[in-house]
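Researcher: Next entry in the queue.
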Amino acid sequence: MERELLITGIGGQGVQLAAKMLAHAGMIEGRHVMQFSMFMGSMRAGDRYQLPATARQPLIRSGRPQNLHVLVGARDLGPLAPTEQVIDNVSLRPEDLAARAAAPPAAAPAPPQ
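Model: Structure for this entry, 113 residues:
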């Protein structure tokens, strides 16, 4: 019988310890176990993140892009989007961000008649 267990939390240390303990207990019982971690960072108001120079094709997904202000060098390009919406697979390469900021905003869909 196969069973899956997903443990989530904020901060991660307690979650990591719980996952390791459960995997170890399963191994002691002779069970086949697999344990892995996935980190999805979150930012708080005022936090800054600088992309590593070695990033090849950095992408972002956000449900609140209006709160993410982008700087390329010293140039402030403003928020990734004007309103709360899900953006996905948005390139964070400097040239793509500059082009995105220069593009006119997409027109809002027409209301149904």
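Model: The mean pLDDT is 83.
Researcher: Noted, moving on.
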